[in-house]
UniProtKB/TrEMBL annotation:
It catalyses: sn-glycerol 3-phosphate + NADP(+) = dihydroxyacetone phosphate + NADPH + H(+). Its EC number is 1.1.1.94. This is Glycerol-3-phosphate dehydrogenase. One of its GO terms (molecular function) is glycerol-3-phosphate dehydrogenase [NAD(P)+] activity. PROSITE patterns: NAD_G3PDH. It holds the Pfam family NAD_Gly3P_dh_C. Belongs to the NAD-dependent glycerol-3-phosphate dehydrogenase family. It is an enzyme of class 1 (oxidoreductase). PANTHER family: GLYCEROL-3-PHOSPHATE DEHYDROGENASE, GLYCEROL-3-PHOSPHATE DEHYDROGENASE [NAD(+)] 2, CHLOROPLASTIC. Keywords: Lipid biosynthesis, Lipid metabolism, NAD, Oxidoreductase, Phospholipid biosynthesis, Phospholipid metabolism. Residues 192-330 form the Glycerol-3-phosphate dehydrogenase NAD-dependent C-terminal domain. Coiled coil: none annotated.
Length: 341
């Protein structure tokens, strides 16, 4: 085997991060703790100019400083993708097709693609990694996904957090886990890419259900019952769609991610649901939040996917009926109560 020259051994890992939101900003903060060079693509040129001048995101996690020696902002995605080893996708799932519409397979050839998106591609009803494989020909062994439990706001505060990096290629998962590990982050690799992705998608819908019931005046007792039933829904769904005898849904990448999203004050999906429960329309809630709640799009996709499998998912059905069938939240949750145990 050819010996790697000493001067090349400590070269920084080249990484592109696509997306300008809070989670993209948090990921950049984590990666910056290690030996990396980050090319950060943001949609708004004004944000790029601001970051170059002031070294922090003007719109999200505004108090989190960015290391100018390791992070460079770009407005042209082609430039951000040039010469990198990893591409981290942190654009909301609903906007991914538009964001990547001017790219082709060559832009992702030979690169490891890591989805930090906890949503599905609307209309296509596909996981982000499946979509990247279909549209851009990224092989499965070059795909990975990041799961929580980990809120961007706590990363900015450097609170101890844990991440799960999933990939069918455990070496890819381990290598990226090493890049995402630092003094306040512990990242662990696993092989269950699709189980982790589907769980991350569904837990956002469950968080919306928790928010809706909270907005209607239900208490912690009911929410605890609903979350425990939700874990059973997730298991039933995954056992049919992507069975894996080694999957442990009680681990932090699954149950932990569900719990933090269902209960945390930082959960945008719970916040969105709470507004719906209090009487906001979907449009009004979206305008007031000014952030994307992935669960809104995801519940329609999961509902469509489940038509093929017919898994019993009463919580998912209730959220879908409220958001897309204009069911009255109080009536729908009253019906849901009869399915919970």
């Amino acid at each position: 085997m050819t010996e790697i020259p000493a001067f090349k051994k400590n070269l920084p890992t080249q990484i592109a991060v696509l997306g300008g939101g809070s989670w993209a900003t948090a990921i950049i903060k984590i990666l910056s703790e290690n030996n990396v060079k980050i090319k950060w693509w943001l949609r708004r040129k004004s944000d790029v100019d601001f970051i170059k001048k002031y070294n922090h995101n003007p719109s999200y996690l505004t108090d989190a400083p960015l290391n100018p020696r390791k992070v460079r902002a770009y407005h042209k995605m082609h430039d951000a993708l040039n010469g990198v080893e990893y591409v981290i996708l942190a654009v909301p799932a609903a906007f991914i097709p538009d964001a990547l519409k001017n790219l082709n397979r060559n832009h992702f050839a030979g690169k490891k693609i890591v989805s930090a998106i906890k949503g599905m591609i609307p209309e296509e009803n596909m996981l982000v990694t499946d979509w990247m494989e279909k549209v851009f020909g990224v092989p499965q062994n070059m795909l990975a996904a990041i799961a929580g439990p980990c809120h961007a706001e706590e990363v900015a505060l450097e609170k101890q957090s844990y991440l799960t990096i999933a990939s069918p290629n455990l070496q890819v998962a381990q290598d990226y886990a090493n890049l995402m590990s630092c003094r306040y982050i512990q990242a662990n690799p696993i092989g269950d890419l699709y189980g982790v992705e589907y769980c991350a998608v569904i837990k956002n819908i469950i968080a919306m259900a928790c928010g809706i019931t909270h907005g209607l005046g239900y208490g912690d007792n009911f929410q605890a019952v609903m979350v425990s039933n939700a874990m059973q829904e997730i298991k039933r769904f995954l056992d049919i769609v992507y069975p894996d005898p080694y999957r442990d849904l009680h681990s932090s990448g699954y149950l932990g991610d569900l719990l933090v999203t269902a209960y945390s004050q930082f959960s945008r999906n719970r916040t969105f649901g709470n507004m719906i429960g209090r009487g906001y329309s979907v449009k009004s809630a979206q305008i007031e939040m000014n952030m994307v709640a992935e669960g809104y799009y995801a519940v329609k996709s999961i509902h469509q996917v489940n038509k093929q499998y017919d898994v019993s998912m009463p919580i998912i059905d209730a959220v879908y009926n409220i958001l897309y069938e204009k069911a009255i939240p109080a009536n729908e949750i009253m019906t849901l109560r009869t399915f919970l145990k």
